[in-house]
Here is the input.
Amino acid sequence: MIRDYDTAVVHLMKDDALYGSGFIIDDHIIATAAHCVYSCEDQEFFNTKIKLVDKDNNETVVTPIFTDINKTYHNTTDYDKCKKYDYALIYVEEDLSEYGVFQLGVATSEYIDNHGQVIVSGFPSNKDYPDNYQGLPFGIRFKAKGKIDSLKDGRIYYDADTAGGDSGGPVYAEEAFITKNGTVYDYKTVVAINTAHTNEQNLNVGIRITPDILKFYNSNPNIEY
Here is the structure.
């Protein structure tokens, strides 16, 4: 893992304690994993807040207006039965445009089958920091590159390094484009939401972005455009 300075990746808080990760996809919308905002076991939402860090390292904490999760995820206490629905939407009143934005996209079967490269970003627990960052407090953003291994039951498996605290962060493909005037533009397309580590070949796993999930984020009836 290496330091990541992308301010569109945000830190989630549960009961005022730093907890998980999320990423901005619209001026008022943050995407994350459902288990970062809701307990299947207790069947209740956490008291979630979001810590934003701008390019000058200024920190701002905001409180969601509402949080949405999939109905199937909400209606079960068995995480194994609903883990492919482990995605959530957070809406905040504050304008997030200064922090940047990620695009959402559906990874093609060809990209998955050809083991396309992905980058995972988030806020790992400080005990899992790289050696040269050991001893520093929780709250540093890191990213790691890897390749897609496979797709199983709606979830994408990949070998990019992650750790506890990275849940809810973006799993994205990055491409650079050059405009006619020579400007280089980096385009980041999120193809999955990081949700867990699996012992299966030491891989990590995320919820694949699908057309239905795009509708969840982009056509949510609670959101006015």
User: Anything to note?
Assistant: The helical segments are 71-74, 79-82, 109-113, 211-218. The first helix runs from residue 71 to 74. The radius of gyration is 17 Å. Residues 2-218 form a domain with the Thrombin, subunit H fold (CATH 2.40.10.120).
